[in-house]
Amino acid sequence: MxxxxxxxxxxxxxxxxxxxxxxxxxxFYGLECPHCKSDEFIKWxxxxxxxxxLDKNKKLKGELLEIKRVKCLKCxxxxxxxxxxxxxxxxxxxxxxxxxxNEEQDTYEYHFSYETIQNWKRIYRRKYLxxxxxxFNNQKDIIQKILNKIIDTYERFYxxxxxxxxxxxxxxxxxxCF
Length: 178
Hints:
A four-stranded mixed β-sheet has the order 1-4-3-2. The mean pLDDT is 76. It is an alpha+beta fold. It is built from six helices and four strands. The radius of gyration is 21 Å and the shape is elongated. It has two domains: 1-86, no CATH class; 87-178, no CATH class.
């Protein structure tokens, strides 16, 4: 998989505009094979993937996107070309996920469950943090703010569970009330 950034599009556009450019072009600049570092590719088909992104009016929009594939002429490996706003193996774009993590109470209109948002927090803390650091290299305070919220949520959850466990052991809290 090759993550495309604005250099590959020769454009510094908003997320929805980058997706439009991606859909309408077959020319990408500065591609490099992650395996052999070659820059020689041929088109190698595509596949369809559902994505959810924020349009220009900040409304959640879902649509099918054709993901383009290329084959490296040197090592013969195939790669999907993903715009940087698309998170590998996820339907919502990075902006949607970050907004959901950061502003949990305002994202119910997106129809993501509380459990999904909590799962994203867990996953992004350990798995996607390196990806976020490279993408938002100049915006470290945003990452720190998100991480602080994640850590705060975990600490509160741990304290509540600890309290419930203590109360149930002392007989103060009846577990049958759930």
